[in-house]
Write a structure and sequence with these properties.
The protein is an all-alpha fold and about 550 residues long. It has 2 domains: about 220 residues, no CATH class; about 230 residues, no CATH class. Helices cover about 75% and strands about 0% of the residues. It is built from 18 helices and no strands. Helix 10 crosses helix 13 and helix 16 runs antiparallel to helix 17. The radius of gyration is 28 Å and the shape is elongated.
């Protein structure tokens, strides 16, 4: 009887373990499919890189107005002139024109590629019914809709670029080229269909209005730079609405000169001088400081490389952890705790309330982003805790906030070391993806929005909540767990790759893998979770600050 009972218990235990593995396997398949779909879906989304370069170019254009006299020259002593030349270059307007033409060419190439991909989707070849239903709706697949959205985005980008390119050409005495750019834009917008059958019915009026407004603005610019000039009605409000920053300033200056409104023109120039002074400081912060940090990081990498060669190893063999659990616990925490809860369960729970946060403005979006991330972090950490609870107390070295080395030194040093590595990888990554592959949508929001309360919530999400949760998860748990099966160097790389893929953008996989490797190296050497958390927080904080400074240059 005792033997039979034991067999039953063993049998029940084996059955329970088998069911658990089957459930875990099913969830893993669902998560893998979702992850693959999201990564492939990001292939048709533009990166933020080109937009960042244009925003920095816009800052540079503002700075070109600094110290200009009535004759058009720049005033100041030789030291100021040298500083000005160092930050802006010999021909800042010419370089700005080249940058805009480069982005315009990239957008045109992307548009052609998207249109070619859309043509590959063949229409339904099934025979038409004998009595077709009038206005029968066509079934649009998700990939088709994504491509059509990408086409719309590229067309809109090209239109706005052409508006600005014409101003750059006109200011550099290339008026015929400017008039040609605006005329082609007007003709293109006049021939452009406002709405496709796949677009929602709520869009046509707003989209038609935007098209017409852009066309009217192009005609206004064409008129004020023509010879003789033509002043069209509503010229000033159209320029105010559809142009920003330096482009708005140059267009209004031209308009006020033609209207002989000297008082308004003087006020405009005074305001632009103040903006130019602020912009010069922003350029120094955005361009010079990262460059200096990169040099310091390069020196730090060389010193560490020399030490590693002398010791013949960057990571001593004893830098491992005693891992009490198996691969099942690792998969359970990673798949269920991070991907399943964060990408499936939490969105379903939030979506069940049926609230559209987009309708409540940028502050509601920021609050939603922070709340969503806290829910995801809380559920992920709960899965982590209950998964490792049977193994408590854990062996020495697990989840230690401070280690045997200074976590502040390792965190700050790791940040500087990451700067030159990320710069090199970013250049390579741009060549690989050519502006495609998607980006973190939070970056675009921070770049374009200026609400301080919303930015504070975004900053809290990116600079505190994300580093704490992700470092506990990927460095505190995943990296040491992998050392049970692979050497520590491979564990650093593999955990970094999974960390990068978790951000669901193909273009970010390579740079985030490099950043994740630096985070893993810092954690492994310092044995302190606070070190990678500090590095991660510094990286996100400086990135957010840089985006804010760039975005403020176009207002």
């Amino acid at each position: 009887m005792a033997i039979a009972t034991a067999e039953n218990i063993v049998g029940n235990g084996m059955t329970g373990q088998t069911i658990r593995r089957l459930i875990l396997g099913a969830i893993t398949l669902v998560v893998a499919a979702l992850l693959g779909t999201s990564l492939l879906g990001s292939l048709g989304e533009p990166q933020i890189t080109d937009r960042l370069e244009l925003y920095q170019t816009d800052l540079l254009l503002h700075a070109t107005e600094l110290g200009k006299t009535e004759g058009g020259g720049a005033s100041g002593d030789r030291a100021t002139a040298n500083t000005y030349k160092t930050l802006l270059g010999n021909d800042p307007l010419g370089e700005a024109l080249k940058q805009y033409q480069k982005v315009r060419q990239s957008a045109a190439t992307n548009l052609k590629q998207f249109e070619t991909r859309l043509q590959q989707f063949k229409p339904d070849s099934a025979p038409a019914p004998a009595n077709p239903v009038p206005n029968r709706s066509k079934r649009i697949t998700a990939p088709q809709q994504q491509i059509k959205t990408a086409i719309q985005q590229q067309r809109d980008l090209i239109n706005h670029l052409d508006l600005r390119l014409g101003i750059l050409q006109a200011v550099q005495d290339k008026t015929p080229d400017a008039l040609k750019s605006w005329t082609e834009l007007v003709n293109r917008l006049g021939d452009r269909p406002v709405q496709s059958q796949s677009q929602p019915q709520s869009q046509p009026q707003s989209q038609a209005l935007e098209v017409q407004t852009l066309s009217d603005t192009a005609q206004v610019l064409n008129g004020i730079w023509s010879d003789p000039p033509r002043l069209l009605p509503d010229a000033e409000p159209l320029i105010q609405k559809n142009l920003e920053g330096w482009f708005r300033y140059k267009s209004l200056s031209r308009l006020y000169e033609l209207q002989q409104r000297s008082d308004v023109l003087a006020t405009l120039k005074t305001a632009e001088q103040a903006v130019a002074q602020q912009t010069l400081i922003k350029l120094a912060l955005v361009g010079t400081l990262p460059a200096l940090g990169g040099v310091a990081g390069l020196i730090l990498l060389l010193v560490m490389g020399i030490r590693a060669l002398r010791s013949r190893s960057a990571l001593p063999e004893n830098f491992t952890w005693e891992v009490p659990w198996t691969w099942e616990t690792i998969v359970q925490v990673l798949v269920v705790g991070f991907f399943f809860m964060g990408q499936i369960v939490i969105p379903l729970v939030v979506g069940a309330f049926g609230i559209s946060f987009a309708a409540f403005g940028i502050r509601a979006k920021a609050a939603y982003t922070l709340t969503y991330y806290l829910l995801m972090a809380g559920s992920g950490l709960a899965v982590l805790y209950f998964s490792i609870k049977p193994f408590l107390p854990l062996p020495e070295g697990w989840f230690r906030p401070t280690g045997k080395r200074s976590w502040i030194v390792w965190g700050i040093g790791g940040y500087f070391a990451a700067l030159p590595l990320m710069l090199i990888i970013s250049i390579l990554n741009q060549q690989i993806w050519q502006g495609q592959g998607g980006s973190n949508p939070l970056l675009q929001i921070v770049l374009e929005e200026g609400d301080p309360i919303a930015l504070s919530m975004f900053f809290l999400t990116a600079s505190i909540a994300a580093p704490v949760f992700e470092e506990i998860f990927f460095r505190g748990f995943l990296l040491p767990s992998l050392t049970r099966y692979v050497p520590v160097g491979w564990a650093i790389g593999l955990s970094a790759l999974i960390f990068a893929m978790a951000h669901l953008s193909l273009s970010e996989v390579l740079p985030l893998t490099v950043l994740g490797s630096v985070l893993g190296f810092v954690y492994t050497r310092s044995r302190s979770l606070l070190a990678p958390i500090l590095l991660h927080s510094l990286w996100n904080s400086v990135t957010m600050l840089g985006l804010f400074l760039l975005g403020s240059g176009v207002k």
